[in-house]
Structures are given as C-alpha cells and as structure tokens.
Amino acid sequence: MSAFLKQFELSAHGDANAPSISIKDSIDIAGYSTTAASRALADAPPASQHAEVVQRLLDAGWRITGKTNMHELAFGMTGINDLYGTPPNPQDVTRIPGGSSSGSASAVGQHLVDAALGTDTGGSIRGPAACCGVIGLKPTFGRVSRNGVAPRVTTLDCVGPFARDMNTIIRAMSAIDPSFSADQALRRASGARVGVVAVDADADIVAAINTVVRRAEFATHSVELKLIADAFAAGLAVINAETWQAFGHLVETGKLGADIESRLRAAARTTAADLDAAENVRHTFTEEVDRALEHADVLVLPTLPALPITVEEARAGTSVIGMSSLIRPFNLSGHPALTIPIPLQHKPLKAGLQIVGRKGADEMVCAVAAHIEATLAR
What we know:
Elements: E1 4-11, E2 20-24, H1 52-59, E3 63-68, H2 102-109, E4 115-120, H3 126-132, E5 135-138, E6 158-163, H4 166-176, H5 182-185, E7 193-197, H6 203-215, E8 219-223, H7 228-247, H8 258-267, H9 272-292, E9 298-302, H10 311-315, H11 329-333, E10 337-344, E11 347-357, H12 362-377
Parallel strand pairs: 2-3, 2-4, 7-8, 7-9
Antiparallel strand pairs: 1-3, 4-6, 5-6, 5-10, 9-11, 10-11
Helix pairs in contact: 2-3, 4-12, 7-8, 7-9
C-alpha cells in the first residue's frame, strides 16, 4: 500500500473510534525515523520526541495510523517515488497523485484515513489534494508550529491538513493550532466578498469555478494579480536555495533518486543575486495580494491550471513545474490558501478551486470553503 511508508497505531487515549489521521514522513513521530521517503535518510535514528503538531493531535484525541509516502525529500510535484512506490491517484490511477505530499492526499482520497497531515513549500498540499480530489489547506505561514518538521529552516513551508470534508479540516486545524477558532470557521459565509482572479488555465476549469462561485451567490468582482508569474519564478528560486541548504549534502551519498539528485545539483546554482531579486518580488507581490484583499474577504482561482498528467507522461519527461504556477506564489507571500474539489462538466475527474485569504484569516478561508461545499451538496 504505497500511500503509507509505515503503518502503526498511536493514540493517547486508546479510543478505537477516534478520528484517524496519517502523518507525512517529513514530520517527526517519536520512535520512528523521519526519512522523507529517501534512501539517503533510511538509516536516520528514530525521532526522540513528537513534532509539536503530532503531540497536539494526540492530546486532542486523534488516532495516528502511520507515516505517509511522499516525493523524495519533498522536492517534486509528481509524487512519483521509485524506491517506496508511487501512491495511487484515487481519481484516476493512470495519473500522477501530485507531490510532494502524495501519500497523504492518496490515503485520504482512498478513505484509508479520515485526515492526513502534509507540508506545503511550493504547493505540496494543495497540488496533490487537487490531483486526488480532496481538500487541502496551507495555513498562514508561521501560524502552525513546525517544531519537529523537516527541513528545519524555511521561509516557505507550512504544515496543514487534508480531508474529504470541511468539518474534518476544521477539526484537524483546531487540534494543531490552538489559536484556530472553529466557531469562526463554521460561520455562514454566503455574503462573502470574493475576488475572482484572472489566470491562464484550461477553459473547462475556469468555467467550473465561475459556475460554483455564481451558485454560491457571493458578491464577486474580477481581480488581476500582475505579479503572479514573477512570484512563481521567485518562489522557485527560494525553494531551490533552501532545499539545497537543507539536503545538498546528500548528493554525495549516491543514494538519491536520479530526479532528486539532478534537481538538487541545479538548485545549487541559485545565486545571491537570484535570492535578492526573489525577496524583492516577495515584498511587492505580498503587497499586491494584500491590496486585493482590502476589497475582498477571499480571492478564488484554479488550484492547478490543468488536470494532472499521467504517470507515463511524467516518466517520459513531460514537465510538471507549471502545475505549481497558481499555488507556489502564495507560499512566497505567506497567505493562507485552501483547495476544494469541484465538478467538471462532462468529465469524471474533479478540479481544484483555490481560496486565498488575508494573513491570519484562515478561518474565513475555511468558512468560504464550507459554504462552497454546502452549495455543491444541494
């Protein structure tokens, strides 16, 4: 079962009826090695203590069922892992599950668990969630503790939950973030002001989002984020530099997958000038998003610009970096962002609708998502 790397039962209360959750293998669980699904870290010593989010889940009565598979070192968008197996995409097994939190999205989509934790540095929760047809939330940067999460140093990465319904997302967030208000997240958001971001995406995905937003009866207006493409490129520069800093030493082990070794060697070429330019874009793009949110409670746009490609296409070399063109920018800016599956006309697969909120307004993002969920259920 390649959605999982290790399966076990861990509960502070011994309640077999407690909600179940799995944990991405970049998050520490005491007594188990955190290997990030890499042979280069397979001999890592067991973690001496739980990551803070894991301890909070246990304290809140969750039942942990194992550690989930992932794209090696969390450095890839396909979710393909030739060492531990590629988690199946529950929507279509011929398509990639998305990365890097592939196992978390797959396990939720297959109904193996009620929820899962993943991490999102460049879209690594929202991308696989959209591929696998589930909900995934990247909280505001810094809101959820990363103590006990790899990489240790980052300006992009966030821990967040996957689930099949918003009630479970809200319950998981309430456990891992003591400041999160479930009451606010469940508050009716039918009158929310929604800015619909104009983006380059497949016409059927854009049409599906417009249909859902119209049915939800939000007060809408169009928004243009002129710097979104620049923010995408800047986010790539930052993740390259920070991933090289965290894992570059593993290149010399000879134990990395070929794709990861190649990406790390390329990442090593990121220059100080590249990072200076990226930080300038971070500042200006963040301001642009903040300005757009002065006139809207949330922004909406596609999660992915197209449906996920097949595993065969990915193995043949089809580029997937464009998958993150609409999600990576919000890692750079630090705004909370959630993806929720929506139906496509005349297609069995669901696409992802992304909801972006003000920093710290994760509850509003969830409230809008819950309203959309209720609209789709009617």
